[in-house]
Design a protein that fits this description.
two-stranded antiparallel ribbon; alpha+beta; 11 strands; 4 helices; about 25% strand; about 250 residues; Umud Fragment, subunit A
Length: about 250
């Protein structure tokens, strides 16, 4: 049992068939302090081992009814509904871009990171497993099925604005004023980016063609020709999807 934060054991309550404390009574008659100390350590180690293995997943059979009831009670929270991904209206400044990233609508993200517009966040979400966070990172919610199976409808996606290096073959968030994306019902897309370039004699290059390729073969790519390339912008590079916590 536990009293004032201290775990107190009682070896006399152990089963007479328990081999782990065999010889306890004999040792008790010779050295009471050592007998109680050894028994205390054996009992605590037994439960420590049991609970540690339980964390990894195992079947447990309990002869002791109170222990069985206690362990069953610990499992009850696992059967409760799992909360959905939480969107916090506001968080402390100390955890912004450390543990939490801002959630934007796609329109707001494009306006803020490309045009420098003042926009409001839709909230803040906790992010884990995406490496070190920084102020160039943000979250948008995907819409539609064009990027399945990589990105599902409704997924919360983490992006990094102003990515360095080539974007060839990477999934990006884009804005393209002269082309319509049916998923987003407008000029925004989350797609795989590829491009063909042409070079002049001086070595300067320009886009000959930009292709925004969906993962889902039921969707057609968006092809942006050279004359419209100036109306195309990459807003952010896809980092990953936040694990979805759905209700059971």
């Amino acid at each position: 049992m536990k009293t004032n934060g201290q775990i107190i054991t009682d070896v006399t309550k152990r089963s007479g068939n328990d081999q782990s404390v065999k010889g306890f009574k004999h040792l008790l008659s010779q050295n009471r302090y050592k007998a109680l100390q050894d028994a205390d350590e054996i009992i605590k180690n037994t439960y420590r081992t049991l609970l540690t293995r339980g964390m990894k997943g195992c079947y447990v059979y309990c002869c002791d009814k109170p222990l069985a009831e206690y362990l069953s009670a610990q499992l009850e929270p696992l059967y409760e509904s799992i909360p959905e991904n939480r969107i916090e209206p506001e968080v402390n400044d100390e955890v912004k871009y450390i543990d939490f990233l801002p959630l934007y609508s796609i329109r707001a993200a494009c306006g803020y990171f490309e045009e420098g517009e003042l926009v409001d966040e839709s909230g803040w979400m906790k992010v884990e497993g995406m490496g070190k966070l920084n102020r160039n990172m943000f979250i948008v919610q995907a819409v539609g099925h064009s990027m399945e199976p990589l990105i599902q409808d409704g997924d919360y996606c983490v992006f990094r604005a102003n990515p360095a290096g080539s974007r060839q073959g990477k999934v990006v968030l884009t804005e393209h004023h002269n082309y319509y994306d049916s998923d987003y019902m407008g000029s925004y897309s989350i797609k795989t980016y590829t491009s063909k370039k042409i070079f002049d004699p001086e070595g300067n290059w320009a886009h000959e063609e930009i292709v925004l390729q969906p993962k889902n073969s039921n969707y057609s790519p968006i092809i942006i020709e050279e004359e419209n390339a100036d109306e195309f912008r990459i807003v952010g590079e896809f980092i990953g999807v936040l694990p979805m916590k759905s209700k059971q």
